[in-house]
Amino acid sequence: MVHLIDASVYVFRAYYSMPPDMQDADGNPVHALYGFARFLGDLLEKARPEYVAVAFDASLSTSFRNRIYPAYKANREPAPPDLALQFARCRQLCAHLGLAAFDSTEYEADDIIGTLVHKLREEGLRSTVVTRDKDLAQLLRPGDVYWDWAGSVRYHYHEIAERFGVAPERYADYLALTGDAVDNIPGVPGVGPKTATVLMQTFTSLDHLYDSLDRVADLKLRGAAQLGDRLARHRADAYLAQQLTHIHCAMPLEVDRHALRRRAPDRAALTQFYDQQGFGSMLRQQAERLISAHGTG
Prior knowledge:
Layout: E1 2-6, H1 7-17, H2 31-47, E2 51-55, H3 64-68, H4 81-96, E3 100-102, H5 109-122, E4 127-130, E5 145-148, E6 153-156, H6 160-164, H7 168-178, H8 193-202, H9 206-211, H10 224-233, H11 235-245, H12 267-277, H13 281-296
Parallel strand pairs: 1-2, 1-4, 2-3, 4-5
Antiparallel strand pairs: 5-6
């Protein structure tokens, strides 16, 4: 089993939940970095994974999706300067903890995780995706796990449909119909979660739905008689949204399971790093436990 960590979720969570007055010697905020370090250390202690990858988002405006649809994520504010600095230090922390970390200006963290899931599945490894982002549920197949660390819940492949309404294979097409306000994806006007759920429980994919529009009027849905016409009028919108909601699982990433094998934390590098951030004993003691556990694992 490989643990694939959606880093940005946990960095942002720490940024908004930890006391913002935590600072390094130069007066730079380090609260997001500290919270992320606690999260990583706790996860490593609890799960003791053999293989780990940490995926970061490098930019909100330069991915291939922005070329397809310039308004993609245009509703989001840029990261504050102090958070951008902490993101860079979070990547440094991963290296000191012996974890493989990845980012890309062309692809998003979701695509990095998706590519790793597919590559490692070919090598016989199942994946635990550590995230709170429901979009990543589309990556699961039998044997995989979706782990919402902050919510203290895990969902296996067969539990995703009950939890999120549709099976993993259909989740991206479900989002193509509803749109995704968080990412500024419009979807099909008038198609909400309930309607999209019924459609994706009835049809196996967006293609299957559009090949079968004559059957939509017979569904037990409010407004079903007009729904087929609405879907037909907004076919281009649905397929545009599909390009944005589907996670790209074949980005150029030359890596195999051996590159993701967790290494022992670097005691000297961590000590210097924590000194620079002004961190106290708690993280240092945890690092010692991780080093000791790695030596006996």
